[in-house]
Queue: 3 jobs
Job 1
Amino acid sequence: MKIPRPILYTKIGCPWCAEAREVLDRQGIGYDERIVTTDASASAEMLRVSGQTKAPVLDWSGEILADFGAAELEPFLAANARTHLIRPAGTFSRSRRGSQKRRAENGAVARDGLGASREQ
């Protein structure tokens, strides 16, 4: 059974978006990132699923968390740990190498939960 990857909608320069990436990476959760600042279709998709234009937005198999910070994300992940077969917070940690200066200019970025990314 393939575990569905969450979709994280972000904006360039958004500190809450960077914080969301850090929490997901720290917990070892892979995700697909859609940068709505430069991708009109991703922006429209984010509006459709969340009903708003504020970022970040996390869509995990229809479970939506919108306009959040780490204080809201961590309980959301803990509540969904069993549903999505992820490790609870604090059971996995790996330091990130390199910086987060790399931002895609356009399109989606898949993240493996360990800080690595690949263009889609």
Job 2
Amino acid sequence: MIINRLQREESDKIFTIVRNVAGATMAVGSAVEWTTTSPDGVRVSQPTTGGLSLFAGVLVEALTDSQYGKIQVHNYLASALVTNNTSVAIVAGDILVPVNAAYHLARSAASTGTSGFIFAGEAVATATTPAAALKKVFLKNL
């Protein structure tokens, strides 16, 4: 783990090193999951239906296939890929979850505020055509 030095002007953040084994480049802000194929606590890939609970963190740098890099696992992050919806807006504080076969996060339908690892840090309006964009989030994935 990499923990940045404490500073008054910036919140503490915790990162960990991962290896992209998805077979393709992952962009900055991508939500990734730990892979269960040869698990080693380093390999990550695109979220899948069976692995959504294996959320690892959000990439803070782009990674080509087989490259090592950093994900953020704790506290404020200004650039995570979040997708909007056609009917329900995201409100700051809503629980966000990884999405199957995608690198973005979406609003949890059961957004009660009582559980979750990822929270929206800003509002995201509805759209006729939903699209992922870099948005502010809070991570509590320790």
Job 3
Amino acid sequence: MYGAVGILMNDLLSTKKGGNPIYVITPLKGPEVKVESPETFAIGECVVVHFSKNSVERPDVGLHNASISKSTDCVPIAKTLDGQGIQQLQKSGANITQSQNIEFLFYFPTIEAANRVANALSLHGFVTKVQPTEKDNHFSVIAQKSFIPTESTLAGFRLLFNDMAMTEHGQFDRWQLAETQ
């Protein structure tokens, strides 16, 4: 049995009638995979994809003879930053047991890099906007998504977004509540 740690980006990509949900997972290393699972997972959750020599990629369900399970391998020190952010949301009166519209902010040296990251995030259900920054010749990406903010979900996104930004010589800056909820 083999395993790959990744971040769950989309849930319920498609389901067969009466079948299990199919999840899209972006591994920390390698291409994204689709896995059907009877278990329920949250967007942004850190998971392990378990597969074997008998696992086969099928267009209708993704990896056949594979499974996913929760993992704690994606939660470095960033988890404490996100926990503090959630505490601030609670203090400001936000109901964190309900879905919130969260913005993620990135900065990139070129519009091409910003567009590549914005397009990748759009494929995973984020609403994105690329715009020039006010001070220098850089570009920002604002990516929004509605979900129930949990410490592990936000820490998983932070880990993935830091990696995405570094790949394009940019920076993942922070997350915050979107101005329009």
